[in-house]
Design a protein that fits this description.
α4 packs across α8 and α5 crosses α7. β1 and β2 form a beta hairpin. The protein has a 3-stranded antiparallel sheet. By secondary structure, the protein is mostly helical. The chain contains 8 helices and 3 strands; from the N terminus they run αααααβββααα. The protein binds manganese (III) ion (MN3). Manganese (III) ion binds next to α1.
């Protein structure tokens, strides 16, 4: 077994009241688990043993099952870590400095990211990425695509990933995606963003 199904880094109810325990439990144990199981089955069938990030970077060579389920597997690992019960507030550290440098102030950044998440049509993810010029950018991808994939337009290393599929918020927020996005700002994990930013900058 080359691929691991990582434990959720906190309990299902740790992000209450911003993200509810039932949503977290179903999202992790059903949705994420299904992506993982289907990806490992497809990987076995297609003799794929590369690191998941390498698979993503070469995803055009593989089946739709690898793109959709490998993407789902990878994206949710980024997403769980992009949230924290100790998160929220203004960005700190090097990522805070880099956001200030690029956007001038946190509210501007927040507005652009919120807009990307709110206006993304249908299912997908909003991302803060570090592109190949080592610049921060905000982007979104459809379905389970991500910025590592060779099939997407705006490529880069994910620094934060935010799931805007209805399954991520419908139980608590129903059709109110903007309320779910507001909730994200209370739990966004700047420590993780700093860790990834410093890894790839
Ligand atoms: Mn999801």
């Amino acid at each position: 077994m080359t691929y691991a199904f990582a434990e959720l880094p906190y309990s299902f109810d740790a992000l209450e009241p911003h993200i509810d325990a039932q949503t977290m439990e179903i999202h992790y144990t059903k949705h994420h688990n299904a992506y993982f199981t289907k990806f490992t089955a497809a990987a076995e069938k297609e003799n794929i043993t590369d690191d998941i990030t390498t698979v993503m970077a070469n995803v055009s060579k593989y089946s739709g099952a690898v793109r959709n389920n490998g993407g789902g597997y990878y994206n949710h690992e980024i997403f769980w870590n992009s949230l924290s019960p100790n998160g929220g507030g203004a960005p700190t550290g090097d990522i805070g400095d880099a956001i200030m440098k690029k956007w001038g102030d946190f509210d501007k950044f927040k507005e652009e990211f919120t807009n990307a998440a709110a206006t993304h049509f249908g299912s997908g993810f909003a991302w803060l990425i570090l592109n190949s010029n080592k610049e921060l950018e905000i982007t979104s991808t459809p379905n389970q695509d991500n910025p590592l994939m060779d099939v997407v337009e705006k490529k880069g290393q994910p620094i934060l990933g935010f799931d805007v599929w209805e399954h991520a918020y419908y139980l608590k927020y129903q059709n109110r995606r903007p309320d779910y996005i507001n909730a994200f700002w209370n739990v966004v994990n700047w420590d993780y963003a700093n860790q990834r930013f410093n890894q790839f900058k």
